[in-house]
Design a protein that fits this description.
Blueprint (H helix, E strand, L loop, with lengths): L4 E3 L16 H5 L10 H6 L2 E3 L2 H12 L4 H6 L2 H9 L17 E6 L5 E8 L3 H9 L15 E7 L4 E7 L4 H4 L5 H20 L2 E2 L8 E3 L5 E3 L6 E2 L7 E3 L8 H4 L6 H20 L7 H7 L10 H11 L5 H4 L5
Antiparallel strand pairs: 1-11, 2-3, 3-4, 4-6, 5-6, 7-10, 8-9
Helix pairs in contact: 3-5, 8-10, 8-12, 10-11
Length: about 325
């Protein structure tokens, strides 16, 4: 897959290179560690990787009180059967539905379910995740980054483990029950982009699959594999064809403004969110049309998108805000 190129200041405060020369492709590609080798390091920080016993007990709790038809429809019985066939209760049990760089686990302190992501220690993702989850940015109300509980460095293997709360892809699987909740979710997506751009970070892979929820009306971004920080870069430019939704300028092989790439992707997210959830919001059409403009110079900034979105909300009457998508 083609790697994103960029014109930016390698001495910026977000650069993962420091005073060393790293291969961009090597340090930013996905890692697939031998998880058993790092089990004790992760446990020493208070997190347990899922074992066959953990997975079996999870399914037993989940299946209580549910009808057989419901379990068959969700393929839970096959997951339970797999957990029962484990060679050893204490052996690690990967989730077959996750890529090799992710592993489910549990916080030993309170039983909270977590997802642990393996990345190169010198990758942009580890650097940006550390910045977004550290003071003062972590406490900013506009920061809708997935809560990161710990960042574990293994310098001798150049590996980093990002421990995140386990949230759900609700916008895709179980959309908000009313238009007000749906618009609140979209606003959080817009607000986080304003926050990132204000701090010179471009996400570069905004999509529905990279937005999760805690099912308590909070939504957050994940997956900063392609993200870049442009501190100290007056006019950043990128080139390449990676990410879910590629804007026209990158399709044409041109150098592009990374922030306007994000605006295009966010516009596509708004379109897809309305289509998948069934919410019809004609008031959004004008805003989305500007965000998807073929000429990136005619797309609004993230701050302007948020301002126009907030101007749109009072135009929707209360009865529609309380309505569902049906």
């Amino acid at each position: 897959m083609q790697q994103l190129e960029t014109e930016w200041d390698s001495d910026s405060s977000c650069s993962t290179k420091g005073s060393y020369a790293f291969d961009e492709d090597e340090v930013n590609c996905r890692t697939a560690p031998h998880w058993s080798s790092y089990r004790h390091i992760i446990e020493s920080r208070g997190f347990r990787l899922d074992t066959f016993r953990d997975v079996r007990e999870f399914y037993q709790r989940y299946c209580e009180g549910r009808r057989l038809e419901e379990l068959n429809a969700n393929d839970h019985l096959s997951g339970y059967s797999r957990a029962c066939r484990g060679p050893d209760d204490d052996a690690l049990c990967r989730d077959a539905g996750l890529p090799d760089n992710l592993f489910r686990g549990t916080c030993l302190r309170d039983g909270l379910k977590v997802v642990i992501k393996s990345v190169n220690l010198y990758s942009r993702e580890f650097d940006i995740a550390r910045r977004l989850s550290s003071p003062p940015l972590v406490n900013h109300p506009m920061n809708h980054c997935i809560p990161i509980l710990d960042m574990i460095a293994v310098p001798e293997d150049e590996l980093g483990f990002i421990v995140m709360e386990e949230w759900s892809p609700q916008l895709v699987c179980d959309p908000p029950c009313c238009l007000r909740g749906f618009l609140s979710a979209l606003r959080q997506c817009i607000e986080h982009l304003v926050f990132m751009h204000h701090h010179h970070i471009a996400h570069l892979d905004i999509s529905l699959h990279n937005i999760l929820t805690d099912c308590k009306c909070n939504f957050a971004y994940i997956d900063y594999e392609l993200s870049r920080c442009f501190d100290g870069v007056a006019n950043p430019r990128i080139r390449g064809r990676r990410g879910t939704d590629i804007p026209p300028e990158l399709e044409r092989g041109e150098w592009a403004n990374p922030y306007k790439v994000d605006i295009f992707s966010l516009g596509m997210l708004l379109v897809r969110a309305c289509k998948i959830t069934g919410y019809d919001v004609p008031e959004l059409f004008g805003l989305v049309r500007e965000m998807l403009h073929d000429n990136p110079g005619d797309r609004p900034s993230a701050s302007m998108v948020l301002k126009n979105f907030d101007r749109m909300l009072p135009l929707i009457d209360e009865s529609r805000l309380q309505s569902d998508s049906c």
